[in-house]
Amino acid sequence: MRRKDKEITDNSLLDDILSNNTICRVALSDGDTPYVIPMNYGYKDRAFYLHSAPEGRKLDLLQKNRNVCIEVTDSIESVTSKKACGYGTKYRSVICTGIAHFLTDTNQKVEGLKIIMKQQTGNSEWEIPEAAVSNVVVLKIITESVTGKISGI
Fold first, then answer.
1. Does the model's pTM come out above 0.85?
2. What residues contact 78, with CB distance under 8 A and at least 6 apart?
3. What is the mean pLDDT of residues 128-135?
């Protein structure tokens, strides 16, 4: 990271940011073209859980290349100034790279969906209907690298 003074090195702060947000941006590779999509997610034990319809562009891309980059930002606040160069943004952001794994075991899929629901609602006590489990793809992204940056906070 170029600006070492803005780097987040505290793992508990990185986990706090990732555990207390609900939207991530997932970057995939479509040959030499990047593809980024916002997604709801769940995060636990340095892994992201995502769910998807059983078909679509992101799944097609992940079948070819399971490498992903995930970005989460929080605490966004604009900073204003009387000078153009004084404008800025206060934020905390985390960027993770990892490998996407397609969960096929029903129990693992249910667990992943419950992790997503807990992240989104604060409640982990959900009944997930069997039909819903069989009609959804659940991905587990095991992180390989995690970096964070804080600015103006």
1. yes
2. 87, 88, 89, 90
3. 91
